[in-house]
Amino acid sequence: MSHEADQWRTIGERLRQAREYLELKQEEAAEAIGLSRSALSLVENGRRKVDAVELSRFAQVYGQSIEALTGAAKMPPLPESVHALARAATELSADDRAELLRFAEFLQTRPPRSADRG
């Protein structure tokens, strides 16, 4: 097997681990990223390459850097609050998860809040 094929398998494995870490089903993750479930399965098995736009979507949905997902950097642990949010989101409908994602994206565009403001 070629070095490049090994790299795509490694990326696919990291993407699968990130999805499972968030307790997302393939269908849920595929919908959030804009892929079919079968395409996501191929990616996770290293049999389909991802382009830069898709990789950026994976990073955003999984809350990881592109570097962490590709193996260029160690994947940092997610805070427990992120785990709790992911667990709660699994109980929501697909529409509600999409709304939650839009709200999270909105919050990311706001200026940071000071922790000591009341």
Indicate how many domains the architecture comprises: 1
Q: How many strands in all?
A: 0
Strand content: under 5%
The H-and-E topology, N to C, reads as: HHHHHHH
Descriptive notes:
This protein is 66% helix and 0% strand. The protein has 118 residues and is mostly helical. The chain has a single domain, classed as 434 Repressor (Amino-terminal Domain). Helix 2 crosses helix 3.
Attribute tags:
7 helices, about 65% helix, about 0% strand, 434 Repressor (Amino-terminal Domain), mainly alpha
Q: Topology, please?
A:
Layout: H1 3-21, H2 26-33, H3 37-44, H4 52-62, H5 66-70, H6 80-90, H7 94-109
Helix pairs in contact: 2-3
Summarize the entry for a quick read:
With 118 residues, the protein is mainly α. It has one domain: Orthogonal Bundle (434 Repressor (Amino-terminal Domain)). Helix content is 66%, strand content 0%.
